[in-house]
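Hmm, what's this shape?
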Amino acid sequence: MAEHAVGITAPSEIRRHWGAVAACFVTAVFAWGLGFYGQSVYLAELCRLHGWSSFLIGSATTAFYLCGALLVMRVHSAIERLGPRAVLIAGSLLLGLGAVLFCGSAAPWQLYGAALVMASGWVCTTMAAISTVLALWFDRQRGLAISLALNGASAAGFLVTPVLSALSRRYGLVTAVAGTALALLCLLVPLVVFGMDPYSPRQKLRSSPEMCEDPRPAYRSSSEALADWRLWSVALPFALVLAAQVGFLIHLVALLRPQLGANGAAAAVAAASITAMLGRVGLGLIVDRLDQRRVSAASFLSQALALAAILMWPARPEVLYAGCCLFGLSVGNVITLPSLIIQREFAAQSFGLIVGLSAGIGQLTFAFGPALLGLIRDLTGEYAPALVLCIALQLVAAAIVLSYRPDCSAVRISRARPARVSVPARRARDR
């Protein structure tokens, strides 16, 4: 067992398993490009082509997220039964097919059928799936691995969306989506098949004595986990922050356009996306050595500070740009941090279950974020009350995430146990 332990905790995890990170990065580009950022392109083009209302198309998108929130809670089971490569490839195919069907819908009811297909692929290619897959290869450097892979989500914003928009104007929406999906699949499938080692060192440890003796909380079922406040102390604050974050980002262009103009608003969105990548990579290098609950609270408070600056000085362009950059620094980390807290505080055999439940709770919540902010904007005639709500959600989330403190001795023991190395192996390593 010592040999396996050395293999999964050596400092060269990233170097030895970089193919898994690259495959998950491209998977994230595919998923967020077609399943998240692409939604804005789909809505605009379908409104233009069919004259459908924004509410009709937006409600189908909400159905997509809500269905995905229910399915994502079981993605860990699919990975255990079918294997990571099969789940990522099948999920990408389903998401691509669903996006083409969604854009090719000729009647409103077809939008909802396509949304269900998209949701089935979305859950197999986004945060919960990527975190669960990478947990099969990474332990000590898992935070960095997940951060690097999920940068694909940020990259999708400035790689996939402009391509979809340009191609749809020239060749039509369906052709644009189908061509983009096919091009990404030609890159993704070989990376998943050949970049991921068929042997995962951590799969062999699931039934080991070390795993069975893990002192951290372990759950046999979703109902057992959902009855424990320790799960909610992770899932609830991030769900509240995601509702504020997604709602703010969806409305960001409309919020900034009166002061900055169309080009300035687009530049602010791009700045937020770039700082999101920088923030995720920068924190990923050190996050495994920090108190991740305190890091989470600091991230929530920094976003609240950014929103407060935008709220207080709406007529100063430099403040608006700075606020978007400050807000963006934590955008990627809000997606990454839940899985890292779960890794540290819960037993390894429950990692996939807890990540899936946390992601499902978050998605159920943030699906209503854009609609809620839009409703407040329509009722009040301005975005200031919506920003106040977002700040309140951030502050409440910071308090909740700090409300539970795990047994530090159990965390240290559980983190140290996989690194147990025999004396001869230690001497050989030191030499």
